[in-house]
Amino acid sequence: MAQIILGEDEGIESALRRFKRKVSIAGIFPDMRKNRHFETPIEKRKRKALAKHKQRRRFRRVY
Asked: What is the pLDDT of residues 5-52, one digit of tens each?
C-alpha cells in the first residue's frame, strides 16, 4: 500500500507527484489492471497475442 505523509509547508501538487511516483514504483497499476474484472476487447487481443508469442518462443525448435 502506497502511503505518503504531507510536510507542513508542502503543496498538494508536490504531494500528489510523490504519491504517483510511489504507486508506479510499487507496481500497483499493472496489478490492478490485471485483476480488473472487465477486460476490453483490445486488451484481450493484446494479452492473447503476447501469450501466443511467449508460447512459440518457449517451444521453438533449435536446429
From this structure: 998 999 999 999 999 999 888 888 888 877 878 888 998 999 999 999
- Return the closest-CA partner of residue 46 out of 34, 57, 37: 34
This prediction's pTM: 0.49
Sketch the domain layout of the chain as residue ranges.
12-58
Of 25, 43, 41, 23, nearest to 33 by C-alpha is 43
Rounded Cα gap, residues 9 and 3, in angstroms: 18
Contact yes or no for 20/38 (Cβ under 8 A): no
